Amino acid sequence: MNVKIAAIIMKKEMRDARRNRWFVVVSFLFALLSVSFSLFGMAGLGSLGVAGFGRTAASLLNLVLLIVPLLGLLLGSVSIVSEREQGTLMTLLAQPVTPNEIFLGKYLGSAFSIFSTVFLGFGVSAIAIAKYAGTKEIADYLMLVCFTVLLGLAFLSIAFCVSLLVRRHATAMGTAIFIWFFFIFISDLGLMGTSIVLKLTPMALFWLVVLNPAQAFKVAVVGNLQKSFEIFGAAGLYATETLGRWLSPILIVTLCLWIFLPLVLAFFYFRSRCVD
C-alpha cells in the first residue's frame, strides 16, 4: 500500500465533505450550539455567566448524541455510492491505485472531516469557558471529547456499510436518516417496551443498552461525569456491583467494536464485490 496515494485520496474526500451542503449545515449547527451552551450557561444562582467545564460537558451530552451520529451517517453513507453512481469510482479503480488505498483514503478523509467539526465546536467552546470560568474540571470535558470521537467513528463505519450496500445516493441518505432515528429514538422506546413485556432482568437490560453505540456512549459519559452509574437504576446498580472498575473499559471496548467490525465488513465487501 502506498501511503502517499491514500493521503491524496483522503484530501480529495475532505474536499468533497466541504462541498456536501448537509454536512456543512450540520457542522455549523454543532459549532454554533456548542458555543451557545457555554456562553448562556448559568454559573450560579441568579447570575448569568459561563458554566464550567464539568457543567458544560453535561449540557453538551444530548447535543452530541443528536448531531455527531448524524454527521457520521450523512458523510459516510454517500462516500462510495456517489462515486459509483457518477461513474468516477470505476475511473478511479482504473488508475494505478489499489482498492486498499481507495478505501483507506476515503475512510480517513471522512474521519478527519468529522474530527475537524468536533474539535472546532469543542475548541471554541473551551476557549470561552477557560477565559471566563478557568480550567477547573477540564478532565471531564476532555473525556467527553474523546468519547464523542469514538461515537462519530462508530456511526461513520456503519455508514460505510450502507454506502456499499445501496446503489443510489438518495437511498443512501434515506437509509442513513432511518439508522440515526432508530439508534437515537426508536431503540429507547423499543427497549422500554421490551423490558416491561418480557420483564427483563437488570443484567439483560444492561447488556441490551450497551449494545446500542449511542447508549453505550451516554452511559459511559454520564457515569464518568457523575462518578457513579447508580443514576441508571437497577441496571446501573447491577453493572456497578458486577463489573466494578471494568465497566468503563467495557463501554469503551463496545464503542471500538462498533468502529472496527462494520469497517472490516465494509472493507472486505468493497474488495470482493465492488472491485470485481
Short description:
The chain is built from twelve helices and no strands.
What is the makeup of the main sheet? none
Computed structural class: mainly alpha
> Mean pLDDT across all residues, rounded?
80
Which oligomerization state do the chains in this entry correspond to? single chain
Give the distance, in angstroms, between the N- and C-terminal Cα atoms: 19 Å
Number of domains: 1
Q: What is the helical fraction, as a range of percent?
A: over 70%
Shape category:
globular
Strand content: under 5%
Instruction: Report the C-alpha radius of gyration, rounded.
Output: 20 Å
Beta strand count: 0
* Low confidence ranges: 42-50
Q: Please work out how many helical segments DSSP would assign.
A: 12
Instruction: Output the helix-strand order.
Output: HHHHHHHHHHHH
Give me some keywords for this one:
12 helices, mainly alpha, 276 residues, globular, single chain
Detailed description of the structure:
- With 276 residues, the protein is mainly α.
- The chain has helices at 3-19, 21-39, 53-77, 81-86, 88-93, 99-133, 138-165, 169-198, 202-210, 213-226, 233-243, 247-274.
- The longest helix has 35 residues, at 99-133.
- The two termini are 19 Å apart.
What are the SSEs and their pairings?
Blueprint: H1 3-19, H2 21-39, H3 53-77, H4 81-86, H5 88-93, H6 99-133, H7 138-165, H8 169-198, H9 202-210, H10 213-226, H11 233-243, H12 247-274
Helix pairs in contact: 1-6, 2-3, 2-6, 3-6, 3-7, 3-8, 3-10, 6-7, 7-10, 7-12, 9-11, 10-12
